[in-house]
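Model it.
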Amino acid sequence: MATDPVCGMNVDEKTATLISGRQGEKYYFCSKSCKLQFERPEKELEAIRNALFVSVPLTAIIVLLTYLLNLQYDNYIMFVLATIVQLYSGRRFYEGTLDAIKNRSANMDMLIAIGTTAAWMYSTVVTFAPNAFPTGGVYFDTSTIIITLILLGTYMQRLAETRASDAVSALIALQPKIANVIRDGEITDKPIGEIKPGEILLVKIGEKIPTDSVVVEGRSSVDESMITGESMPVTKKTGGKVIGGTINMTGFLKIKATKVGKDTALSQIIKIVQDAASSKVPIQKLADQIASYFVPLVVLVGIISAMAWYLIGNVGSNTAMLIFVSVLIIACPCALGIATPAALLVSSGRAAKEGILIKSGESLQIASKIDVVVLDKTGTLTKGRPEVTDIVQISNYKQKDILRFAAIAELNSEHVLGRAIVEKAKNAKIKMEFPKKFTYKQGSGIIAVDRSGRRIEIGNRDLFDRRQLAVVERQLQMLESEGKTSLIIGLNNKVIGIVALADVLKKDSKKAIVAFQDSGKEVWLITGDNDRAAHAIAKELGIKNVIAHAKPKDKLRKIIELQKTGKRVAMVGDGVNDAPALTKADLGIAIAAGTDVAIQAGGIILVRNSIYDAAAALELGKRTMTKIKQNLFWAFGYNIVLIPIAAGALIPFYTVSIYNFLPALAAFAMAFSSVTVVTNSLLLARKI
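Modeled.
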């Protein structure tokens, strides 16, 4: 059996008539509306909006005529209005019923169609032939309210799904549009789609790398964090490989295109996201699962009750028909239309106040069942930018002096490490003046001369000789073992200290990990960063499961591996490299401070850039699903209690006159169950 990717109903592939394809995969649908939602969600939303535009005002008038107004021809007026609602606004339920019959299955459309049709047809007969049945009450309000409420609930769900952004389009937006092509010593602009392997391209400071290439001339730092997750810029020189879509930061590069079009790393990520999205099967909707058993049971009870009273109770054909119709009317739970939307509306509103945006009800439903939480490091657990963590004294100079000399040398630098040092000095209120001379040594560091004529050196090992390095090697190794980037500070050819930088943890990362682990979740750290940085962070947070140097496909592979063991996986991330995993995971949770791609691939967005909110979102999902199940119980509960009465259980005591009270009983059940559902849902408004 296949599963409808929209509603989750089971569909037999052998008899299915509604089929659609995407990315080479076949999908089977239980109804035309599900197929339309899959192929053209904007059209489905428009169709529901138009149906509501008609049903809402007409239903309001019918309710007024039923309970407040007393006009001479009110039954005829209600017949006209209810017929429009039934045949126009309710048409989708008839189409869904026909599709369900073709697919040999039962769904909520069938229950709604049968119940509302029974109410409408019975009321129509009573309107034009008042003496046809022992009682003369009409159910036009029942049929129209059911249709309107369920349409409203469906519209709310579709609206949330339609507003969910397209991660693929955001990925495509990352791709450069134009490349600087070098031909015969001249530079010309060329659309990226026309670039061929082997062509020489020029990439200026601040520009994106046009396509996957190899450096043939120049040296620069390249920000690859959006692709690899590496928090620090990577030095590229002749012979080094660069990735399309990454950013050239400090120097010019001449590169030779090696991969173009669909073969580039970014294009492969786009394909992974598309494949993961199309292969993801939504969780089955609980209401439809109940309906698949409830619908045939109700029809069977109605038929048996009517036949039993006709053949054994000798009540007559009119009364037997009334019993059958009453069972169908009573069985149709109007509160079902708000059971799920009410809980989702309250919980999503509460979440929004806490900085958590829920893209769809399905995301909350899955959040309630998560077994494993997979976390990215850079920008998720950490701030995503380097900060000064240590200032090591090697000479008699104080830490403040070491920081001041380092900041003076870095004042002219655009390097991310240099900016972090200057920011640290500013926060410490250290006075700095621009150096008289400034020389940038690509890939190794900076040599500057301050206003007093002192020579300042700041950089990595390549900038200093062996004698100078011998003084600091032990401290360097210790800092590097902690995953920190260390810059040596020299003054007048003498090493005076070390400034260490790292991508530091967010303040609530530890609290979040404790919350995940306390709730029984298995936690994984999977990052594109290096081993030292990954394990240093994992040790600090108490995470045992760590994978470093992970490419997008590696993260995706681990997600699939965990899912194959039967576990439900949530992925929390913020970068382009996280998008495939965010999409393939049962639940993607994206940091709003991250890239648009990650945000749009996630099902839940954390606006406040707080990883602890991910733990709160999972807890909210659990609470919401509990409320939805309670709501569904109440939605069906009152009606199920009244089914025996509709089936004639009280006829021996009150004769067929009991049916004089059935409209009131149906209205009471409908109102009371709806009030219960709404009140129960409002309990979700409490602080997470």
